[in-house]
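To assess whether the prediction recovers the assembly geometry, we first specified each molecular entity separately, as shown.
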Amino acid sequence: MAELSSSGDRPTEADFVAAMRRAQLQVPESLYAGTLAGFRDISAHLVLLREMMPGIGDPFYAHRFPDREGDHNDAVA
Amino acid sequence: MTQWHELSVAEIGQRLRSGELTSVALTEYTLSRIDAINPSLHAFVHVTYDRALRDAARADGELKMGRDRGPLHGLPYALKDVIDTAGIPTTSHSHLRLDHVPDEDAEVERRLRAGGGVLVGKLATHEYALGGPSFELPFPPARNPWNPDHGPGGSSSGSGVAVAAGLVRVAVGTDTSGSVRGPASHCGVVGLKPTYGLVSRRGMLPLSYSLDHVGPLAATVADTAAALQVMAGYDPHDPGSSPRPVPGFTALPQEDLAGLRIGFAREMLCAEPEASLEVIAAIEGTAERLAELGAIVEEVTLPPFEQFNAVGRVIMAAEGFSVHEANLRCHPELFGRYTYQRLVPGAAVPAADLIRAFRLRHALTERLDREIFSRYDALLAGSALTPPPQFSDFGPDWPPPRAATLTQTIVFNVTGHPAVNVPVGLSSSGLPLGAQIAGRPFEDALVLRVAAALEAVSEGPSVPTWPPVTRRLDP
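The predicted structure of the complete assembly is given in tokenized form:
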């Protein structure tokens, strides 16, 4: 998954296997297909986020800060 | 002759206060109705017979002594089974929580009980307020009372079913990406996701700390407002809770909407290729009714739905994984298939991406405030974008077909704005359709006012209508 950041490519099953290994998760064989599908779904959202918010140079970089607990309420308060 | 379950919260209150009806009689009636109907619909996973009758007797006694605790005094209600109830099992519909009996009430339950409400039981949910309709869990999935071959939506599935089937007038659900409004849409009832911070989440099992909301589902807008009045309020133990004073919600003005400006997110609705044409037509009809009621309705362009969806899904995946990480690692076999398959990918969200999602959430919220709610008092949008799916649409593995879970509700979990599902009609197959009305932060009362005006002129199922279910579907 780390490679995804620089290339923006769709993740592969190898990325999924590596991510699960890093998280110390052993996905049971019987649950593998749906879990991989869930990974692909989330990864597609990550691609969009990285396109929207590349960091330096993104349209919100200068004046947007990470959230913390409670800030979300401040934003709508 | 009107049956007791067809009476509104206000009508029940009048009868309780006049002595024409007692809470004990109403609670006995409710428990009998649950016994008769629940085996077909599976809305309840636990019925609190003895406690309900004790609380009902206390409510009657207090009214006789002149102590009136408010709009829900003596009224039976039920809670989604992710909301803690002291001394009563709170299972989250999961094998992993079957033995969980909380020591303390959730804050919302504390408020409902202090308000004189009578808890009659705990309601089915998708496992951990996430998974999906599953048959391998400790309890069967709730079934849609309009047609039990169809699902009721989720994850507050039992809450939608219990209200639609007339088992309770008021139920409580939780909503992280649409889990109150989706079931409300599919079951033909009202469901409110309040402004973030208005109702405490303390004591609900979290799914996503910064997206979770607690909200009421009820038979009518007025019933919803009565429930919100009791549920809302500051809780210093919920970091997202707002200290703002709680306004009155129950005095819904009986007037038209003249002068109100309402944006219509038609472009977002129609941009979804799998949205049902029936749903689109029903929501377009809703826009016309709002205009007939005197509102100024204009089509508006929101940021693309996929931006809201990406933010919400990524935050929910990461926060949800953090809640369940230990069990996912040690007891994968005890999760429902869908739940496991949806939670585990959260392990693959890097910190940098979670921060991107947080930052984009702020940006999207500001855009909605600046571009929409600075010019419009309310916003009409899609809720569930299809009629209720059939159980057979859901295969063994996640994901089901996109149309089976299609909603645009997550937009307002991301931004925190209040949003209510209001029934707007029936599909050609006789299943409920809903629309969503959103508003400015902490203007929940205005959102309810618009919904009430719509309800008054709607052809939709605004009161619980429950076709008899004569067959038992599960072994």
